[in-house]
Amino acid sequence: MDFFGALQDIGIANGTFLMFAMLLGLLVTGIPLAYVTLLVALVFALGWFGPMVVPLITSRVYSFVSSFVFVSVPMFVLMAAILDRSGIARDLFDAMKLLGGRLRGGVAIQTIFVAVILAAMSGIIGGEVVLLGLVALPQMLRLGYDKHLAIGVVCAGGALGTMVPPSIVLIIYGLTANVSVGDLFTAAFIPGLMLASFYVAYVLIRAYLNPALAPVPDQNDVVPLAEKLRLLKGLILPLLVVTGVLGSIYGGVASVTEASAVGVAGVIVSTLIRGELTIALMKGAALQTLQTVGMIVWIGIGASALVGVFNLMGGIKFVSDMITGISENPTIILLFMMAILFVLGMFLDWVGIALLTMPIFVPIIIKLGYDPVWFGVLFAMNMQVSFLSPPFGPAAFYLKSVAPAGISLATIFRALVPFIALQVLAVAILIVFPGITGR
Amino acid sequence: MNEPDRSAVETAKAVDTVERGDAGAIAEAGLIGRLVDKGGIVFAIGIVASMAILINEVFLRYVFNAPTIWAHETTIFLCGIAFIYGGLYCTARNSHIRVVLIYDYVPASIRRVFDIIISIICAAASAMFAWAAYLMVLRSTFRPDGSFRLERSGSAWDPVFPGALKLFLLFVLTVMALQFIVLAVNYARKRT
């Protein structure tokens, strides 16, 4: 019997199951995620149909890499890469010391504020977690903060990069769900700040209930006024960049893609003013950008190819019938989707999740009468959990790479538990009060 | 102010090592890997150039009220080739995202076998896709009568970018298949 088309005999239910089993099986052997999805797409393209559909996959790859909105992804990555290499974030952290002051838990709150400003400048995590891990974590540990609290604040704060606009999670969602990225950014603003305020509230409550967790710095750590003014300068450039990026998006002056380029230019000018701009810095940042977008885009390419084949097989219809069939109640269906996202978030990268599940979920969401923009914000909030949740929470791994030797991965994941709970709470609030997105 | 400056440099270095791994292609990638790694700078510059073009476009539109017809398509092309090349670049540097749940816990000898098999599988997949891209390129680079004509975008400017991007995809997939074969051979030759 010929292999081409032979798989079709097992039926769509078994086909879906086989596909899922292959994905998981190949994934745990250590094959890069991008190639796992490409390979499974290939096997099913050949096994279900035959060689004639393979060029359809490459056409999908082509259309995937040639979208104008997608150009904003390398821009935001480049921006973060330059930012990470400059002293901007470090000065920002020092400047925010003024805010923390002698407040109990002040340094932790200062860290969260810095994280929010960094998040409002660029839209990725990784660099942010590493930066906060290098700048904020040692200081909190030096002051005698509880290490779990300190670690959690750094990881959760660093992950905010993909929740507070601009965020590349929302950009990719906008592309797959075919909704306006500008609308998504507008809708995600308050939920992003809401999540950050949960972190602040948590730190304050913990610190006041148990002062030993977050000792107040000594009297001699208090900064004189002249020093304060000098520190304030560290705030000016980042705030100008934030205003430039978000202002041009919300003000309708430029498209998201153009605004992202404005952000890069803003960060380059900032480093120039600070006298840090060198060829070596730009080269390092540009090469890192190439690598990061290579990773993101190829996971996207693989997932997009797989979804294309799965759709041709009739799988999307099958799965969406299955999901809508579990209950008459739209809320149950919604919660079921959230559960799927939580579980996938433990194992897969968010790009893969977005491109694999959204072609199935978004049509269902629209059919149930929900707003796809609100769902995008919900998705981004859900992916916040995926950055922290074991066994593959990327934020934890980023922090581990720069944390002091005594801090193990197990410690980090334990420290993240309360923050994951706060993120889940934020997801729940978004579901109960969709009005938070302003929609 | 020497102290903070030094720590800023250290931060940059640490960020560099964490995010970029040990700079350069992995040893097993061989000559082809080193070339791919070197070539990365061309596409990295392309990303920076796209940024400059976009800024220029915003500037021309608002200051001179004279938007160009080429800016959008050029940035899409520059970023498109960078996206495609980025996958090859990550392959040579072994920096694609992978789940190392089992991989990290097996002894080095078995891991070597894993490496060989993974490389062979990926080589096969890349080769298949290269073939598929070849079929796509055939349609986008020749007229039905067989004469050569790169597919154009059909816009007012009408560049050959779509045809060129598809051709580039074929090229990258081919090199990628070769890269995986080189990786498989070098993993097989490696003594552990």
Describe the overall structure:
The complex is a heterodimer of chains A (439) and B (192). Chain A is mainly alpha-helical and 439 residues long. Chain A has 20 helices and no strands. Chain B is mostly helical. Chain B is globular. Chain B starts with a helix and ends with a helix. At the A-B interface, helix 2, helix 3, helix 4, helix 8 and helix 13 of A face helix 1, helix 2, helix 3, helix 4 and helix 5 of B.
Tags for this model:
heterodimer, A: 439 residues, mainly alpha, 76% helix, globular, B: 192 residues
Strand percent estimate of chain B: under 5%
Helix residue percentage of chain A: over 70%
Return Rg of chain A in Å.
Answer: 23 Å
Largest interface: A-B, 75 and 67 residues
Low-confidence stretches of chain A: none
Largest sheet of chain A: none
Number of strands of chain B: 0
Give the H and E element order of chain B.
Answer: HHHHH
The count of β-strands of chain A is: 0
Please give a quick description of this structure.
The complex is a heterodimer of chains A (439) and B (192). Chain A has 439 residues and is an all-alpha fold.
List the helices and strands and how they pair.
The complex is a heterodimer of chains A (439) and B (192).
Chain A: H1 11-28, H2 33-49, H3 54-65, H4 72-85, H5 88-95, H6 97-100, H7 106-121, H8 127-142, H9 147-159, H10 168-177, H11 181-209, H12 225-250, H13 256-273, H14 279-312, H15 315-325, H16 330-347, H17 350-367, H18 372-388, H19 394-402, H20 409-432
Helix pairs in contact in A: 1-2, 2-14, 3-14, 4-13, 4-14, 5-12, 7-8, 7-9, 7-11, 7-12, 8-9, 8-19, 9-20, 10-17, 10-18, 11-18, 11-20, 12-13, 14-17, 15-17, 16-17, 16-18, 17-18, 18-20, 19-20
Chain B: H1 2-20, H2 30-63, H3 71-93, H4 108-141, H5 161-189
